[in-house]
Each structure stands twice: as C-alpha cells, then as structure tokens.
Amino acid sequence: MRPTFCHAVLVTVDLSERSDASMLRRGYRVAAEMVRAHPGPFSVSVVGAAVFAGGSVLSTVVLGRLVDDVVLPTFETDQVDSTTLVWAAVAVMGVTIGRSLGVVTRRYFAGMTSERNQMTYRQRLVDRYLGMPLSWHRQTSAGRLLAHAESDTEVTTTLLHPLPFSLGVGFLAIFSAIALFAVDWIIAVVALTVFPAMIVTSRIYSRHVEGPAMEVQAGVGRISSIAHESFDGALIVKTLGRSSEESERFDQAVATLRSRRVDVGYIRAIFQAFTEGLPAIGMVAVVIVGARRIGSGDMTQGDLVQVISLFNVLIPPIRVFGFLLESLPPSVAARDRMEFVLGEDVPSPQTGALLPNNALGVELDSVSFSYEPTSPILDDVSASVAPGEVVAIVGSTGAGKSTLATLLAGLMPTTNGGITIGGFALDEIDETSLVDNVSLVFQESFLFADTLRANIDLDESAAPDDIESVLETALINRFIDDLPHGLDTILGERGVTLSGGQRQRVALARALIRKPRLLLLDDATSAVDAVVEQEILARLRTDLNTTTIIVAQRLSTIELADRVLYLSDGRIAGQGSHSDLMENDDYRSLVSAYEEASR
Amino acid sequence: MTATPTTQTSETSPAKTSEIVDQQNVEAEPEGAISVLRRGLGHSEVLRRGLGVTVGMGLATAVARLTVPVLIQRAIDRDPLPDGGFDVNYATWMAVAAAGLIIFANTMLWATQRRLVVRSEQAIADLRSEAFAKVHQMSVADHNETRRGALVARVTADADTLARFAQWGLFIWTMNPPIMLGTLLIITWYSWPLALVLVAVYAPIIPWFRWLQRRQLVAYDRHRTAVSDMLGQFSESLMGAAVVRAYGLQQHSRRKITHTITSRYRAQLVANKYMSGVFISGDILGAVATLAALGVGTIFRAELGLNAGELVAILFLISLLNNPVGQLGEVLDRTQTAVSGWRKILSLLDHPLDVIEPVEGVPLPDGALSIEARNVCFAYRDGDQVLNDVSITIPAGTNVAIVGETGSGKTTFAKLLARLADPTAGQILIGDRSLESVSPQSRFTSIRMVPQDGFLFNTSIRENVRFGAPNATDTEIDDAFSQLGLDWWVKQLPHGLDDVVGERGESLSVGERQLVALARAALADPGLLILDEATSSVDPETDQALTAALRLLAEGRTMVSVAHRLATAEAAELVLVFDRGRLVEHGHHRDLVNAGGRYSDLHQAWLGNTR
Predict the structure, then answer these.
(1) Could you tell me the fold of the domain covering A362-444+516-598?
(2) pTM above 0.95, yes or no
(3) What are the C-alpha distances in Å from B296 to residues A78, A258, A503, B291?
C-alpha cells in the first residue's frame, strides 16, 4: 500500500536523456523560456547594455582625446586653454552619465527580468501545488516543494543577470573584431584566439561542474525536506528526546551539501582563474607579436596602441561571457529540478452536472479502493443513503472509514465501482458544485494562520448572520468570549492556540457555513467533550437540511444515527439500525466495549 | 493535533504571531552591517581562522594584478628611442614579465578562492546545523508562535544568501581594497598633492555609501521577511492540501500566495533601486576624479612639477580605479543581502531558550517514579494563566487519571511533567529530584510521553517506531505490536510494518497513527509513562484492549493518563480533577463520585451521554 512515487527514478531518467544535449543548448532553452516570458524588461536591459557598451568605447575615445587635445598641448605650449578644459569636462561628464544610465538601466531591468521570471515560476508552481491531487501531496515532501519555490527559482534566474550584457555587447565585440582585422590580420588572429580558448575552457568547466551543481540543488532540496519534516514533528522529536539524532540526520545532509558546494567552488576557482587570466595572456601575446611585427616593419607603434585599446574594449565582454558560461550549469540544474513539478499537467477543474439544492442521496456501487491490488482498503462496498438521512459509519481502526469519507468527498478516485451523489456519478459532477454542496470535516482540524473569522468563512463570502448562526450551532459562542479579539483573534499556524476540541468546532463551523447538502464528519468531534458533542449533533439535525454521514466511535453518537453502516476489513459487515446491528456479536463488542468493561 | 499546552484562553496576541526571530520592529532600523559582521565572525571561529593568510594572499593577487596593466602600458608607451624607433626587446621583456605576473596572480586567485570556499562553506554549514539544533531546543510555545516556513527559511534560504555571497563577494572584499589602495599609492608616488585631490574627490563616497547601505539594509531586511512570509504561506497551503481541496479553496489560497509572491517581488525591486544608486555614484565620481586630476594637473603643472607623461600615467591609473569601485558597489549590495540573512540566523541562535538543560544533570532513579508538584503555575508569555497553584504528591507506581473539561489545564499539566515547558512559578519533582536538574538523557529514557498528535515521519511504520527506540530489533518491534494486541491491524497492512506512511503519516488514519505512537511507548522502559489522550481516535474495542495492555505495561511504573473516557478514570487509582487551571479535587473515582463535587458532575454528564 501507499506506494512511493518513483520521483528519484523519474528525475534520473530525465537527466540521462537531457545530458545528451550540450550545456549551451540546454542553457539556451532555459534562457529562451525566461526571455519569452518577460520580453519587455529584458529588451530594455539589452538596450541599457548596448548604451553602456557604446559609452565604454566612447569613454576610451574621450580619454585619448584628453591626452592628445588637452594634456599634450598644455605642456607643449605651457598654457592652459580654459575653453578646451570646459569642453573636456562636458565630454567626460556627458559620456560618463550616459554610460552610468546605461549600466543602471541594464542592471535594474535585468534584475526585474529575473524577479519577474521568479514570480512566473512561483506562480506556475503554485498552480501545480494547488492543482495536483491529494495523493500526489501525500507522497511529495513539502520541504522539497518549498525549495523549488525559493532556491530553485532563484538559481534558475541567475542566468538572466549576465545575459543582457552579453547580448548588448555582442555587436561591440563583432565591431572590435572587424576593426582588429583591419589593423593587422595576424594580430587579430592572435587576439581572437582568446574566444575559442574561453569556449573550450567553459566546456571543460561545464562538464565537470554539471554533476556537482545538480547535486547542490538536490542537496538544497534535501535539507529543506528534512528541516520541514523535522520542525513539523518537533513535538514528537522533543517527547522522544530525539533532537540530537535529528540534528545528525540534518548535519549529514548539510555536510553532503557543503562538500558538493566546495567541489563546485574548487572547479569554479580554476575556471575563474582561466577566465580572468586568458584575456590578460591574450593581451601579452598581442604585445609580443605586435613588438615583432613592429620590428619587422609590418606595423607601426600607433597600430599597436590602437590594437591594445581595442582589445581592452573586448575584455569586459569576454569576462561577462565567462560569467554567463559560469552561471549556465547551476541555472540549468535548478530548472531541471523544477521540471518534476512544472512538467506535470494541472488537471483542469471538472465541469459537468450541477447538484440539486436539497439534501443529497448517496449510492455506493461495489466501491473498491486500494493502493495495491493485493490488499484492498475498501472492497466491494455497496450501500445507499437517502436524502436527509443521518448515517453512521462504524468500524474498527483501520477498517477503511476515513478512506470512505475521503472518496465520498471526491478527494481521491475509487479504484473500482462508482459513487453517485444526488443522482449524478461523482466524476460527472461539476467540481465547484461538488465542493459547494459536499463538505468533509476532517479528523484532524487544520487551521490557517489567520483570524477565527477567516478560518470559518474561508472564501470571505458569508453574511454576518450566517457566521453568527454557525457560531451557535458549533457552540463556538461558548468560548469565543474568552478569546482576546473574539472573531478577529488570530490563530497560530495550524491553529495551535486552541484546544483540540475547540479546533474541531472551528473546523465544523467552517463546513456548516457552506450549508452543505451532504455533510461528511470523519470522527470530527472526537476531541469535543461528550456533552458538548451531543448538543452540537442535536443542533445539526434541526438546523440543517442535509444528509449526514458520520464516522463515529462513541456509542452515544452512533445511537443518534438513523442507520449504521458497519465496516469490517474494508467490507460492509452489516447495515441497518443500531439496535438491529446490536444482534451482531462483532458489532456489539466493538461499539459497547466501554460499557462492557465498566459493567 | 499539534499538541501544545493548550487551554481555552491560551491565545497569543496577533502581534506575536510573527516570527520570534523577527523580533525587531521592521520599521526600526535593523542592526548595522558591521555589527552583524562582528557578531557573525565572533560566532564562526572557522571564518576567523587563517583570515590573515587569506587576506595576505588576496593582497599579493591584488598587487600582481595591478602591476600587469602598468607593465603593458610601459611596454607599448615607453618613450620612443632617440631615432624614433621602437625597442622590440624591451617591449617583449615587459610582456614576458607581465605574463609571469598574470600566471602568478591567477594562481594566487585560485588558491585564495579555494581557501575562501572551504572556510565559508564550513561556516555556513555550521550555521545551518546550529540553527537546526536551536529550533529543536526551543519550547513548544516558541514553535506555536512561529511559522514552519519561516523556520525552514532560516536553515535554507537565509543561509543560501550567505553561500551566494561567499562565492564571490568575499573575494572582492579581500581583493579590491588593496587594489584601490595600491593604485592610490602609485599615484602618490607620482604626485602626492594629486593623490590628496583624488582622496578628497572620493571621500564623499564613504558617507554616501553608508547612507545607501543603511537604506539597503532596511530594504533587504524587509525582503528577507517577505521571503519568510512567502515560504510560510507556501508551507501552509502544502500542509493544508486536504482542506484546500475539500473546500475548493484553490482560488483563495492562490490569491494569498500570489500576494506574498508579489510582496517579495516589490521588496526586491526596492532593494534593487538602491543598488542603482551605488552604481551611478561610483562611475560619476570616477569621472569627477579624472577631471579633477586633469584640471589640477594642467593648471598647477609647474607647482606640482609634473610632465606630460606622468599626468597621462595618472589618468590611466585613475581609469584603473573605476572597475574596483564599481565592483565594490555591487559587492556592497550582495553583502547587504547576506547580512540580512546572516542576522536572521544569528537572531534565531541568540533567541533565549525557555527550557534550559542543566549543565551536569542528575539521573532519575530506576523503576517507578514519584511525582510532586509544588505550587505549580503556568502562564503564557502574554500572561494567560493556564495553571494556578497546583500542588499534589503522587507516590511511585500509581496509575493516575487527569480529568477536566477542555481548557482546564489538564494537558498543560501533563506536558510540564515531561518538561516540554517549565512552570512559571513553583516546582516539579520527579523521583524526588527537581525536574529542572535532571539530565536530558535520563529524562528521555525514564519519562515517556505519548502525545495526542499522531505525527509520523515519511518512512516505514517500523522506522517510525524505531524512532523512539533506536536500538530495537525488528523482532522487538513486532513484539511491541503483539503486546498491545495489534497483530490483527499489522496483518491487514499490505507490507506489514514496512508500509510507508506518507507525508506526516497522512496515508494512515489518525487512529492508526496513534497505534504507532503507542507501540513506541511499549518498546520503551520508562519509570513514568504519560498518555495525553493517546487513544482518542481509536475505536472503543481496540481502545479497551489497548487500555488493558497498557495497564500490564504500566506494572512497576507510574502512569499518568489525560483521560478522554470515563473508563480510564474508573480504572485509575488516583483521579486528578482540573477546573479552570486549578486542581479542584483528587482521590479515587469511587470517593469522588460520592463526594458530589466537580467530578461527580462530570461523571453524571458522562453517564448520561456517553462513556
């Protein structure tokens, strides 16, 4: 039962298929996806980068002119020409301001592109987190899903920071290259050798860093999973005194992450040394070859100065290109990890028949449910519940009562057989109509970290009178005055500041306010004091026009029902009125165990 | 349910629902970067170790890097030979020397990076581990006030900001100041008055960056808070997946999450805005510096004794300053992000603990443990009094039931016995030893509490049981279920005890999860067993069988059960009756019924309705 999804396997298969494609191609795909999503800010950023690049070229020109037109004449004539000086100032400031605006535009909008893409990814993740079926969630670590929402989206978009710059200065690089060839083809070849050298270096880098980078993202997901689960179970950890073992489990994952990060850091250290060093070495090569060429009379000294300044213009693009290549593997790795969620198709909400607006009858036709065929949890369950009836489901722990309630609410599909509600097959009913008319109150009452009011009126659509009336029915008005801010009291995460019974009453009110036509109570009042429970259940009968199916343990609750479905080992072992079923020995010993004991 | 010392009025004020680790008022200016840095360095010994060597290496790299462009400049720009020719050999030698320096600089760069990576990653890993351990040391009250997502953010996203900074920022911080200083020194060598002029031009950058940095700090702090909020909201919608689906809340949840996603985006954009300020200022000051040097250098050339070549060299050197100043602006930005994350982690680590373990604890005696409560009071931080002056002495080996209405303080009392929190006044003695002086190891083995909360880890049932008894063999675990008479339940599981239970154990029903928790207790050998409505979701027949089995288990132990059923109270040797935080009655069931007090009312109600 409860098969674990083969996520790990899926991801691995995915990877092995992908690694055929080169890192550059995969990086291109990720970049294209993001640029397509937000072309506006990206384009602005590219323009900013182009302005910056142009400004950079201009500023070298201006600096050259400063020397030629201001410094040298001043020293030669031994007098300062103030007009020239003012013009120089205007030129320098103008170019600088232009360039600064370029860089700011580039950075700000590159940042915006990246942030917007993070929003888009997060939104896509949310769609899936909310759209995927319950069974998917029960198998998927919440911590891992959290890591997708933060770390993976962020790392994926790091690619966007050097990208506009690389594109924006691309044409500049081409222009400089042409100019280099115009000066001297040998020196141009020497200078441009840097580019293939960079590509080769980055390929080697990618190949080495790809594995560790993937493992780093996996490691981040892993520690997020452990932390989420462990903090979630903090009370158990505390009562069992297992915090040091939990720390050990976490520390191991952290140590693995650390050593993978160090691996990546080492590889990157080498790569950085090369991307920093290669252009400089290129420069040296240009000087040495240039000196020879001057010596042999093929070039003038002025040519060499020009080549050097052109090469200087080329260096920043080369560096940025290096950054881009450096950020490819982590980005691609992070994006690949998210594919596990983003690759899922969100099932679209079912449309179909609308349920009638009165108490709903229920038919179960040979319903079976199993996680594994060999051990069914529900096996061939057939029963019918008339509209308005109150039916108790009774059975021992593990008999399949909760599963049956979950199936009736349409939260999981049956494995075999059909369920009909209000005359329509469950899978034909419009999803909105179903959740509006069928309310399941869970055994464990999950409360949101929000006000009491928001926890009851979940979609903020109820009239104040309705809220008042459910407060009364669920007997919340008995304790609401003790809360510091009444209905506006904020309940802690998972509503932990209320007692178990109070939480269950809030969860009940949440269902009642929707005026359900089929109310499913999965042992939903177990923590409520017996006396209070009786009162609530009596009110339910009078206040609502609904069919009620109630999973019950207490004899007094069972006695309230019109009819009882007795489940044993996933099968119907009897149905009828409570008093009839009391003839059944197994049933009697199940439900009246306490009475027998105290006799 | 997530059990806590809960009572009817145990409400925390809305303001307190924010993260404990965000105690500082967001509006107030957060702690400065330098202070965080000092605190952080003080915290992580590994960062301080060998820091001098690393900085020295960074310095060497910087010097080498700085020399390269100067050499190249010399190679091509050296005054032409008298005959107007070009000295090929001189240029070549300069270039070769430059090549040597480049190789040296980049080797140093590589070595420095390696050192930084190893040390910073170690420091980050340590911080994560410490923060994780700290979360588990916090009391249940702290946990209630903090969102799961925010706590997870501390050990993941916040630490990641540090990691990202360490990859690049640290290096720039070690490299660039020496480069800038070195450049300035060379300029000083050419002309010290001009160097002074430059210092004067660049000086405003310090207050300006400080101002910007303070704004950035606030911006990034909000950003980190927005990240926590977002993760909290994500986490909630994941944990509440069942409710969301059953109530068709997808749209509603989407709206709430989208809101936090958008807030995070906005907070980031605000932070980015300040970053722009950093960039513009660096570049513009560079231009002003160039112009100042040009103006002063040409106008006062005689006074300064400069020639054309020297002035050109100085202008060239100033252009070398632009890059590191710009990078420093960027690194400042990344530093702020890292500092905000760092501060969040450090505040978690500095958060005062409610329950402080003794340095050298005393062990509890073997066998059944006596309980003595002396004027025990418990109140939440916001002042809600949950327990009021509770005093009772319970002899070792007694079977005790605690009864009372919802919110009477019965669960809180049980939790204090397991030291999930400490009394705010009064004292608890277990086995004649003050509970606060008992060593945690001894407490965990000798006192075992089974909470109502049926949280399970997403692994097999067997491993979940082993979680309470790490050394238990498979047979012992099987036997634990047999002892409790649960073989029938194990048999119907497809893979028996090897069944995997799903996230939070949600593939099992609540009652089934309670069975697993009881099996854990059955494996343990505690002198005091505390059951907090541990069978509340189990069917009556199984409950009865469990009660009988537990009674056998409790032979030779003290057993305290928070009772949800009359049967438990009837079977107990001593019943404690709680009402509104006070212990109002205690005695045997029979006597209490006859006494006609609070208990007899409860009993009547029970009898009339259910058992």
Answers:
(1) Rossmann fold (3.40.50)
(2) no
(3) 14, 53, 78, 8
